[in-house]
From TrEMBL, chain A:
InterPro entries noted in UniProt: ABC_transporter_permease, MetI-like, MetI-like_sf
Location (main, coarse): membrane
Keyword field contains Cell membrane: yes
CDD domains assigned: TM_PBP2
Protein name: Sugar ABC transporter permease
Keywords from the named record: Cell membrane, Membrane, Transmembrane, Transmembrane helix, Transport
Domain ABC transmembrane type-1: 73-285
Ranges that cross the membrane: 15-40, 77-98, 110-130, 158-183, 204-226, 264-286
Superkingdom of source: Bacteria
Pfam families attached to this UniProt entry: BPD_transp_1 (PF00528)
A Gene Ontology BP annotation from the UniProt entry: transmembrane transport
Membrane found in the keyword field: yes
Organism of origin: Massiliimalia timonensis
Length: 294, 427, 292
């Protein structure tokens, strides 16, 4: 707090605007204006090609009655919770192991990072192969253990878990790398002090590592949240939202409504709802981490 | 230290490379811009779905080049991956950067007409030589509400295929496919293999769980009806014929393994896990090309009729876009691309069927067994009902069939819900 | 002391075991990928009965690379990625530095604006962004109001520009720079350094780990771009490697062996980069000892 005041006394830096100018020029032109356009469109009957007509809150009213959109919200929430938490926990665990000087992990780290490197399109295609109900590898493994074959992506109860497992698989490496760089920037002398105090490894982890890691964690949490709320590509390729709409997600619904039925105004209203949800969760997250930090 | 040097060096090399290639490419573009503005040679742009490496691409590229030389214009062409074509089109039309001529599929046609992306060709077709040569059914598929919008050039029907060897094992005549619906059901039961738990391991009939709308479209026509009233632009999902069709499909469904029609690689017929069913002709012919030893194990028919004969026929069309700079030139290009000469070359090089009588003889001669079935399917082939909401129709039909197959709803409930959903969206 | 050492050996063993186990599970799909890349068409259509290829067909890699002009595709992709990574590092870290260290009016609001901007998925703003690319003033025949020409359509810059302003990058840089000891700034300021000099002399050298991390992530992101090149380019010569993969995906058939072979070739450069950069982004900040 004291330091902030001190810096404050130095006054405003006009130069700062020059520093952020290049970013904001491009950002405004390519993100902000289009995003603003989407918000405006949500109050119109825009269909991509004819002129827009203002229709007030009509799109939002229809949203309330849209069962598929409700289903997509539930699916997205389930996907987010069950992908994000395991990815974070596993990522941190592996990063903590990799951070240890006891073992050499260079090759393994590269291997674990590999899924992040491959495009979602390619990843989805490989996993379709694995999940295939007649010739899939996973079914072969099930049979090896004497278990019955499963339909995986074609089974209404298993399709979403299948996507979740793939999501975790793809995300661990990225989380590990970011956590690792966070861990490496924690000064060694904290650990030394803890060791002198006779603190156990587990205790050190919870009392020192986790709190000091909270900027990294909050970064991964927020970006992870945004990422999983926007899950789309794998859904589009692997299940197309089915079976029985059990894997349709918010962005998938936006895509279907916008680009297969050309109800862009309606799809924009969905986007705005999505945006609001993400903002609320992000703000809560910020508040929580700030309190922790204070 | 060495490593670092190497790294620095490779970075520098990379930078140099990027700068030079960037320079050259911008030069290229500058040149093309100049010729664009000078008006010296006209440019006509054509977009086709697929890839430069497709079997039919070389003949198309050659035809485009020939056209350019003949007319003294510059022909630009681009291939667009099938799945991404609608996205690319949308962006192009929204930004007025669309081509003059483009190739579309049957399921895109009505959508593009509604969006006013493609224009009627009536006045051109009237004086067109090929008018008498093209199969009337194919010309009809490219029309909507008395206007011709699209010229069919490549039919891609689903044909009925069955495994002769499996028929023999089950004590059926390998030379004759089922003749009607009852027989097909009977055969399917005999051909199905199950494991101890009763789960189907070999499909007597291959019925897709997802994307079954193709089969429904075939069977509703075979049952003498349609899911939509084309004249009044209204859905007619709740009819006795529709319920009958759905119930029949559901009965067949108990003899299938689970697969998604959208993932053609998983079709049981080409995975040695199904005895009969409808399959896109391209998928099957490709499989037989890779597995020549399977060729004599397959029998073909255009369809297994119910009350009537009907088949699903996907079609590729050439269309003129609303953003064509010179419509006359665009039409000339379409005429050139559908000329007997060009299509005959394609039959020879790629073995694709064509929509013109003069070309189909050559095609049948190439491989009579399967190609006769293909051309028969073309002659009784049809697509989605021609209604303005064909995208929504596909979506609702698929959803209704899914809920039927997974036992969530009865045939009647599923159809009623689809009907209601469609009515709600249409007005 | 003895028991401590024993303890250490044991923990080494189980840590190693966990690590190898995780790696094996993660790598499993890639093994399938490699096996598929080495099979013949026939073996692939036989499904599981041919799990291992009878004779590994390394020639599949060669055949795959001969389908289309892959040299050109790689040059295109390297160029797009190179520019996107370098420019985005510069502008995002500059902004991140300003947000972390400088005080100016509207700072909080601007920062949150940037954050909100990254929350909408690409599918949602795809068409509006594409129109912006086409209507960029004064390029590609456009007038000052963005009319008349084709803007950056069919231009490499049309793919690069929308990718470089990356709020994630600003966010990450800001988080990272905020961890730097403020005394350094103040000392430098007293020495008469301008903010730009502080950024160049202190933050860039100290920020190498974050640049390595961010650069790698941006590299992966740009390398795997699919939709922008698809929409913007109207010329087969401009294809990127990701677009070129479509050559193996027909409407009716997918040539799995070539597709997998080409995919492996495509991910190799990123893996090499990862290995090269690894030591940077895991080394941490050399000066962290001075923190607090």
């Amino acid at each position: 707090m004291k330091r902030k005041l001190k810096l404050g006394s130095l006054g405003y830096d006009k130069v700062a605007y020059l520093f952020i100018l290049p970013f904001f020029l491009i950002f405004t032109y390519f993100y902000f204006i289009p995003a603003f356009q989407v918000i405006l469109d949500s109050f119109t009957d825009y269909d991509l090609f004819t002129t827009r007509n203002y229709i007030g809150l009509e799109n939002y009213r229809s949203l309330l009655e849209d069962d598929k959109f409700l289903q997509s919200m539930i699916n997205t929430f389930i996907y987010t919770i069950f992908t994000l938490i395991p990815t974070l926990v596993l990522g941190l665990l592996i990063a903590a192991l990799a951070n240890s000087t006891l073992i050499k992990t260079k090759i393994c780290r590269t291997l674990i990072f590999m899924p992040h490197v491959v495009s979602m399109v390619a990843v989805s295609m490989i996993w379709i192969f694995l999940y295939d109900s007649t010739n899939g590898i996973f079914n072969a493994i099930l049979q090896l253990f004497g278990l019955p074959k499963s339909d995986f992506l074609m089974d209404p109860n298993l399709a979403l878990p299948c996507l979740i497992i793939m999501g975790i698989w793809k995300g661990i490496g990225y989380n590990m790398v970011i956590f690792l760089s966070g861990l490496k920037s924690i000064p060694e002398h904290y650990y030394e002090a803890a060791k002198l105090d006779g603190s156990s490894a587990v205790n050190t982890f919870f009392k020192i590592t986790l709190p000091l890691l909270s900027p990294t964690t909050s970064f991964l949490l927020i970006t992870g949240l945004i990422g999983s709320f926007n899950v789309f590509e794998q859904v589009n390729i692997m299940t197309n939202g089915g079976p029985l709409y059990r894997t349709t997600t918010i962005v998938h619904q936006i895509y279907i409504n916008g680009f297969s039925q050309y109800k862009l105004g309606y799809a924009s209203a969905m986007s705005v709802v999505l945006l609001i949800i993400i903002i609320i969760i992000t703000v809560i997250n910020f508040k929580l981490t700030q309190e922790k930090g204070a | 230290m060495n490593k670092r040097k190497l790294f620095a060096f490779s970075t520098a090399a990379l930078m140099a490379l990027t700068i030079t290639s960037c320079g050259s490419s911008s030069d290229d573009e500058l040149n093309s811009k100049v010729s664009d503005n000078s008006g010296g040679s006209k440019i006509i742009e054509m977009w086709s779905r697929g890839n430069e490496t497709d079997t039919h691409a070389p003949s198309l590229i050659q035809a485009l080049k020939d056209f350019g030389e003949e007319k003294g214009v510059e022909v630009k062409y681009q291939f667009i991956p099938h799945d991404d074509a609608p996205t690319k089109w949308n962006a192009a039309f929204a930004s007025s950067t669309a081509p003059d001529v483009m190739d579309i599929g049957i399921s895109h046609m009505i959508e593009r007409i509604n969006l006013k992306h493609i224009v009627p060709l009536n006045e051109y077709v009237e004086t067109w030589e090929g008018k008498d040569d093209i199969y009337p059914a194919m010309l009809d598929l490219g029309s909507y509400k008395d206007d011709v919008y699209a010229i069919a050039h490549f039919p891609d029907p689903q044909i009925f295929a069955y495994r002769k060897d499996k028929f023999e094992e089950a004590g059926l005549d390998p030379e004759s496919p089922p003749e009607n619906w009852e027989q097909m059901l009977e055969y399917a039961e005999k051909l199905t293999e199950r494991d101890d738990s009763g789960k189907v391991t070999f499909a007597g009939y291959a019925m897709p769980t997802q994307g079954a709308r193709f089969v429904a479209n075939i069977m509703i026509r075979q049952n003498g009806s349609l899911f939509a009233d084309e004249e009044n632009n209204q859905p007619t999902m709740v009819t006795p014929e529709a319920t009958e069709t759905f119930e029949y499909m559901n009965e067949l469904y108990q003899y299938t393994t689970v697969f998604d029609n959208g993932k053609t690689d998983t079709h049981p017929l080409i995975n040695n896990s199904g005895a009969m069913g409808y399959i896109p002709n391209g998928v099957l012919s490709n499989y037989l090309k890779n597995n020549p030893d399977m060729a004599d194990k397959f029998g073909f028919a255009s369809n297994v009729p119910g009350k009537e004969s009907a088949a699903w026929c996907g079609v590729w069309f050439y269309t003129m876009t609303s953003q064509a700079d010179d419509p006359d030139l665009a039409w000339d290009l379409i005429v050139h691309l559908t000329s007997t000469e060009v299509l005959e070359t394609r039959v020879e090089e790629a073995g694709l069927p064509a929509t013109f009588e003069s070309v189909s003889k050559d095609f049948i001669e190439k491989d009579p067994a399967i190609n006769t079935a293909i051309m028969d399917a073309v002659s009784v082939g049809a697509g989605n009902p021609k209604v303005s909401w064909s995208n929504l129709y596909e979506q609702e039909l698929d959803a209704a069939l899914e809920s039927l197959f997974y036992g969530e709803k009865t045939a009647e409930e599923a159809l009623t819900e689809a009907q209601n959903n469609l009515l709600k969206e249409i007005d | 002391m003895k028991s401590y050492r024993l303890h250490q050996t044991w923990s080494r063993v189980w840590m190693k075991t966990i690590f190898i186990l995780v790696s094996v599970i993660v790598v499993f799909p890639f093994i399938i990928m490699v096996l598929t890349a080495l099979k013949s068409n026939q073996e692939i259509s036989q499904g599981l009965s041919a799990f291992f290829p009878e004779t590994p067909l390394f020639s599949n890699f060669v055949t795959a690379m001969q389908k289309g002009n892959w040299g050109r595709y790689f040059i295109n992709t390297i160029m797009i990625t190179g520019f996107a990574v370098i420019i985005s590092l510069v502008i995002n870290s500059l902004a991140g530095y300003a947000f972390a260290r400088m005080r100016f009016a509207g700072k909080t609001i601007l920062f949150y604006c940037a954050m909100v901007g990254m929350m909408l998925p690409m599918q949602v703003i795809m068409i509006p962004v594409f129109l912006q690319i086409k209507e960029l003033p004064l390029v590609g025949g456009n007038d000052f109001f963005g009319n008349g020409g084709i803007g950056l359509v069919n231009n490499y810059a049309g793919v690069i520009l929308p990718l470089i302003a990356h709020p994630f990058g600003v966010f990450l840089c800001r988080q990272f720079f905020m961890g730097f000891p403020k005394e350094l700034d103040e000392a430098a300021k007293i020495d008469g350094c301008s903010p730009l000099q502080i950024y160049l002399k202190l933050y860039i050298p100290m920020g190498i780990p974050i640049f390595a991390t961010l650069g790698l992530l941006k590299f992966v992101d740009t390398w795997n771009q699919y939709t922008w090149p698809l929409l913007v380019f109207n010329d087969p010569e401009m294809n990127t490697v990701q677009l070129a993969l479509n050559a193996f995906k027909g409407e009716n058939v997918t040539e799995w062996n070539y597709l997998m072979a080409a995919t492996i070739v495509i991910i190799l450069p990123i893996l090499v980069l990862f290995v090269c950069l690894q030591r940077y982004f895991v080394q941490g900040i050399a000066t962290t000892g001075m923190k607090d």
